[in-house]
C-alpha cells in the first residue's frame, strides 16, 4: 500500500509538480492550493505526511500543520520555505509545543523524496 502524502502550496504549479514527482516516486500524492484546503482534506484523506509551503494566504503552512497534527498526531510534517520571515513563525509554533522541520526552497526533487522516505520509513 502506498503512503499518502498531502502537498500544499498556493503556487499551483509547485504543488502539482511536487505531487507528480512524489507519485512517480511511489507515493500517493494529493495537491491542494491553500492551508485551508489542506486542513479540510486531511480529515478525509488521512495522509501519512504533509509537505507544505510556509507562506500562503489564509492559514499559513505552520498553522495548517498544527491543525493537521491535532487531527492526525502521527502525520509526518515537512515544511518548505523560501523566505527568511519563516523563523518568527517557527518560533511561535515552538512556543506552542510544535517543532517542525523546514527545508529551504527550492529543493532538488531527489533530496525531497529521500528526506520524505527517511521520515516515513525511518
Short description:
By secondary structure, the protein is α/β, with parallel strands linked by helices. It has helices at 12-24, 35-45, 61-71, 86-95, 109-121, and strands at residues 4-8, 28-32, 49-53, 76-81, 101-104. A five-stranded parallel β-sheet has the order 2-1-3-4-5, sandwiched between helices.
Descriptors:
122 residues, alpha/beta, Rossmann fold, 5-stranded parallel β-sheet, 5 strands, globular
Question: Could you please describe the fold and organization of this structure?
Answer:
With 122 residues, the protein is α/β, with parallel strands linked by helices. It has a single domain (4-121), classed as 3-Layer(aba) Sandwich (Rossmann fold), CATH 3.40.50.2300. It has five helices and five strands; from the N terminus they run E-H-E-H-E-H-E-H-E-H. A five-stranded parallel β-sheet has the order 2-1-3-4-5, with helices on both faces. Strand 1, helix 1 and strand 2 (28-32) form a beta-alpha-beta unit. Helix 2 (35-45) packs parallel to helix 3 (61-71). It is globular. The two termini are 17 Å apart.
Q: What's the layout of helices and strands?
A:
Elements: E1 4-8, H1 12-24, E2 28-32, H2 35-45, E3 49-53, H3 61-71, E4 76-81, H4 86-95, E5 101-104, H5 109-121
Parallel strand pairs: 1-2, 1-3, 3-4, 4-5
Helix pairs in contact: 2-3
Amino acid at each position: 500500500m502506498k503512503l499518502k502524502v498531502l502537498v500544499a502550496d498556493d503556487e499551483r504549479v509547485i504543488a502539482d509538480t511536487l505531487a507528480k514527482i512524489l507519485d512517480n516516486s511511489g507515493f500517493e500524492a494529493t495537491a491542494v492550493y491553500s492551508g485551508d484546503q489542506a486542513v479540510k482534506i486531511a480529515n478525509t484523506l488521512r495522509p501519512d505526511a504533509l509537505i507544505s509551503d510556509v507562506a500562503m494566504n489564509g492559514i499559513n503552512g505552520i498553522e495548517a500543520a498544527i491543525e493537521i497534527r491535532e487531527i492526525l498526531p502521527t502525520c509526518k510534517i515537512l515544511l518548505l520555505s523560501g523566505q527568511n520571515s519563516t523563523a518568527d513563525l517557527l518560533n511561535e509554533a515552538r512556543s506552542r509545543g510544535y517543532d517542525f522541520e523546514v527545508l529551504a526552497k527550492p529543493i532538488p526533487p531527489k533530496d525531497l523524496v529521500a528526506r520524505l522516505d527517511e521520515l516515513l520509513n525511518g
